[in-house]
Specification:
heterodimer; A: 279 residues; mainly alpha; 12 helices; globular; B: 296 residues; alpha/beta; 7-stranded mixed sheet; 4-stranded antiparallel sheet; disordered C terminus; binds adenosine-5'-triphosphate; binds magnesium ion
């Protein structure tokens, strides 16, 4: 027990990474079975199949490609050839926009529902029905009414981010401790000041939990939405690279999607830490 | 002292029962308090003490009757009546000074930040929390939290201080210190105060008058006990005072038996509107009764 837990965990993490990469490397560098492959099929599978290497890129290929992307992340050579950074920027932009709109609707809406038992009861059936709808199911309707694929994607992000935030805000607001509200009452705090100085800080951790769930869902959904609507974005990029049979780029995209999702979550986790109060 | 500063007039409170119908916690309840006086109310758990205090605070309204303060019926909470909550009810996201300043700035909305801070600081020092201004409530001990609650209540310079078992969750030593502080502050400023307690010695030390409430439901004010001990009494030698045991035994006897039996053997001449005022002393010839014989 001479080393800290953090240190031991880091060593273990590094070890797992090394074993994974090594296994991956060994599994993809085998030079077997070209002979047994049907020449027609080999042709279909592209160059790599006939050179004796596996069609699956190894870690070295992926590493080299990553460096290549890092050197020029934002180039733009027409609709089908954009840098991965640029594609990511499109996706993040859409998520931010749809998400921000959802915050603007969900937080005040959640306040209203949380403060008024009447509104809560009246709106509950709608929320219960709308909440379980897959956001992608809205896509055709959005495309039909909005007639713009990019805006439709933003709408889909909006609708999928809305519910967790709305429900959490309403719950957080409704469960503010009575004693804190009584403090405000005995101090004759007017309603608006009460909302900002008592209810908002008291409900902030719950609201932030909802916001974290929402950003996670939004990031999951944007990839699928962009695969559907095409044009730009990391989702479209993945699909396009699949059509180009560039598995290397597909793998890199997967990695990058994970990284960005983690960053978004961590950013909100940081805000959440800031508003959380020990009890 | 005849100026009735606070007057509870025939208030009633009912709560719906689980199986339909309703329970009457109390009805036709009367008693009054004078300006600058410290009153305690004692009675068994569930008799309705908190309900009375909440009605005085304006947090709860009586189903019948009125509570009058300074000639005006209570219709809701007011900055004139500060509450020290049993659970301290500090805002955990605010620091010590932030909690007190929140009350101060609610009281005087046009005050500058500096002025608010200065007032808050003054009361934090008054309760002996200097040096802890920037701590969050979670970093404080139970006694310190209760002090912040006291500072917050006093900082708005209320006309009446309402306390719901403010010290019941504290250890005996801390409780004693806080009782000393509350008594000193109330005497110094002539604060009118109303406090719920379960602790007979606390009532004897702090209160000028003690309201005895019988067991619920249908609780009544059995009598008002005047404290015969001198005003300059000290907590540590309370028991040396000749009247101490008379008073203490009277209170204990009430809690042990009369709070239960009072309803069945209501003394002759008892009027709900004028609960008898008694003054237990070692010398049995001391005058008894007071308010009860005076006019309403
Ligand atoms: N919201 C409520 N609904 C139903 N009954 C209630 C409610 N609040 C209080 N009561 C009842 O009213 C009675 C008086 O309650 P109250 O809190 O005033 O008692 P208390 O004298 O302060 O007791 P304690 O000493 O335990 O604090 C209790 O019997 C309780 O069951
Ligand atoms: Mg109580």
């Amino acid at each position: 027990m001479t080393h800290s837990l953090t240190l031991r965990a880091s060593v273990l993490s590094a070890l797992i990474f090394f074993i994974f990469v090594a296994t991956w490397h060994l599994a993809t560098s085998g030079s077997s079975s070209v002979a047994q492959m049907d020449p027609e099929y080999a042709k279909l599978m592209g160059l790599t199949a006939t050179t004796g290497k596996s069609a699956m890129p190894g870690p070295l290929d992926v590493g080299a490609k990553i460096l290549e992307h890092l050197r020029a992340p934002f180039y733009d050579r027409g609709p089908n050839d954009k840098g991965i950074g640029l594609q990511l920027a499109y996706s993040v932009g859409r998520v931010m926009l749809g998400y921000a709109l959802a915050v603007l609707v969900a937080v005040p809406g959640g306040f209203l529902i949380g403060m008024s038992p009447l509104m809560s009861r009246a709106l509950n059936p709608y929320i219960q029905i709308l909440k379980p709808i897959s956001p992608l199911a809205w896509m055709p309707l959005a495309l039909y009414t909005i007639k713009d694929s990019s805006v439709s994607a933003i709408f889909v992000i909006f609708i999928c981010s809305l519910w967790p935030m709305l429900i959490n805000t309403a719950f957080g607001v409704a469960s503010v401790r009575k004693e804190w509200l009584n403090v405000a009452r005995t101090l004759e705090v007017p309603p608006l000041r009460r909302a900002f100085t008592i209810i908002l800080p008291a409900a902030a951790p719950t609201i932030l939990t909802g916001m974290r769930i929402s950003i996670g869902i939004a990031w999951l959904v944007i990839v699928a939405a962009e695969m559907l609507v095409g044009g730009t974005g990391i989702g479209y990029f993945v699909w396009n690279e699949w059509n180009n049979l560039s598995i290397t780029n597909v793998i890199i995209s997967i990695l990058v999607i994970g990284l960005v999702g983690m960053l978004l979550d961590q950013a909100l986790a940081r805000v959440a830490r800031f508003v959380t109060y020990p009890d | 002292m005849t100026d009735r500063f606070i007057s509870i007039e025939s208030i009633a409170r009912h709560y719906p029962q689980a199986g339909g119908g309703s329970t009457t916690i109390f009805d036709d309840l009367w008693f009054s308090m004078n300006k600058g006086e410290f009153s305690c109310i004692i009675g068994h758990s569930g008799c309705g003490k908190t309900t009375v205090l909440n009605i005085l605070a304006g947090l709860d309204l009586p189903d019948e009757g009125v509570a009058v303060v300074d000639g005006k019926a209570i219709e809701g909470p007011s900055l004139d009546r500060a509450v020290i909550f049993q659970s301290h009810a500090l805002l955990p996201w605010r620091s010590v000074i932030g909690n007190v300043a929140y009350a101060v700035s609610s009281r005087w909305r046009d005050w500058s930040k500096d002025k608010v801070r200065e007032q808050a600081q003054r009361f934090i020092e008054l309760v002996g929390l200097k040096g802890n201004e920037n701590k969050k409530p979670s970093e404080l001990s139970g006694g310190m939290k209760q002090r912040v609650g006291i500072a917050r209540a006093l900082s708005i310079e209320p006309k009446i201080l309402l306390m719901d078992e403010p010290f019941s969750a504290l250890d005996a030593l801390t409780r004693g210190t806080l009782q000393d502080e509350v008594r000193r502050i109330c005497l110094d400023t002539g604060q009118t105060a109303f406090m719920i307690t379960h602790d007979v010695d606390e009532a004897i030390y702090l209160a000028d008058r003690i309201v005895l409430m019988t067991n619920g439901p249908n609780a009544m004010v059995a009598e008002i006990v005047e404290n015969p001990l001198p005003r300059d009494r000290r907590r540590i030698d309370l028991h040396k005072h000749p009247d101490y045991y008379a008073l203490r035994n009277h209170l204990i006897d009430f809690l042990v038996s009369r709070s239960r039996s009072f309803k069945d053997e209501i003394p002759a001449g008892y009027q709900k509107r004028h609960p008898p005022v008694v003054r237990p002393t070692a010398n049995p010839k001391a005058p008894e009764g007071g308010d009860a014989l005076k006019v309403a």
